[in-house]
Amino acid sequence: MPKVTDIVTLREGNTPLLRLNRVDGRAYVKFEGANPTGSFKDRGMTIGVSIARSIGSRYVIVASTGNTAASVAAYAARGGLTCLVVIPRGGIARGKLAQAILHGAMVVEVEGNFDKALSLVLDTLNRIGQRNIMYPLNSINVWRLEGQKTTAFEIFLDIGVPDYVIVPVGNAGNIYAIWKGFKELRELGIIDKLPRMIGVQAEGASPIARAWRLGLDKPLFMDSPSTVASAIRIGRPVNWFRAWRAVKESGGTFVTVSDDEILHAQRMLGREGIGVEPASAASLAGYVKLLDEGYLRRDDTCVLIATGHGLKDPDTILKLSYESVLVKDAMEIVNLVLSRS
Ligand code: F0G
Predict the structure, then answer these.
(1) Distance separating alpha carbons of residues 202 and 213, to the nearest angstrom
(2) What is the pTM of this model?
(3) Ligand 1 nearest atom to the CA of residue 173, by list position
(4) Is 28 in the same domain as 48?
């Protein structure tokens, strides 16, 4: 690892692990929305941006479905670096775009999806050539994954080693990072058992999960991934082999969930006081599906990674039907309450 002389931090990590009350089973949610910019990306960005600063880069660059952009924008601002975020036009949730703007990122849009944005970033880096000018912070950057593995350490400190950890999968870095964290705890002799890892993808963006389910040995890349969960709308995950290896080694599985199942799970979490964006609800949707299929048992201890905060994507929530009543005076409110009791 490059020598880090300057740590750029917003005090990320130490997020709450919450037992679900209304779900039939031993399920806990690791609420990553409680990170400084509202997603798990902050765990890696503190390391990535610290390295960028220490090697003297002036610029950092990412392609993103939104959360990486929001996170890198904030950490770059904190560290005094210039930040470029390359995003699919119209393809990221508004809260995330607002964050990137708020923190002063240069926003570069492409027509097309995340995969196109990432290939442009890689091409830009090839043309510039020197990392100490422009430092890449996508999850191809292994140091970011070193930060993300701390999720495993925190879970262990809270409840020991669960039977399963269930993770929404997009570019496929995080599930590998969490697995690596548990493996290192075992190598250090701190734990002697490992959890099984379960990766969840949205049906319309499931290059890994679909191939796994079909018994293939590599992904079925998709050119036009589509799902309401914009954070994981990715057709060509660059870290697929890492995720694949993690799931295989751990004895876990991949599963796909529909957009309806994701939105239902998002509402279920909302009703437990836990506000997550659609991609994050995929882990609960996957849990429910695997319970129904009999793959998981109700007494299995499962940790569902809720990767990003609900406020990231208000538009998706407001598109769902909701009840509101326009009143003219207090008596109408009183009557409303009385009619419900
Ligand atoms: N959940 C959320 C909320 C995400 O933002 C992402 C990835 C994932 C899950 C999947 O994690 O890529 O490590 O498998 N978002 C990236 C981004 C791609 O640009 O913000 P992964």
Answers:
(1) 13
(2) 0.96
(3) 13
(4) no
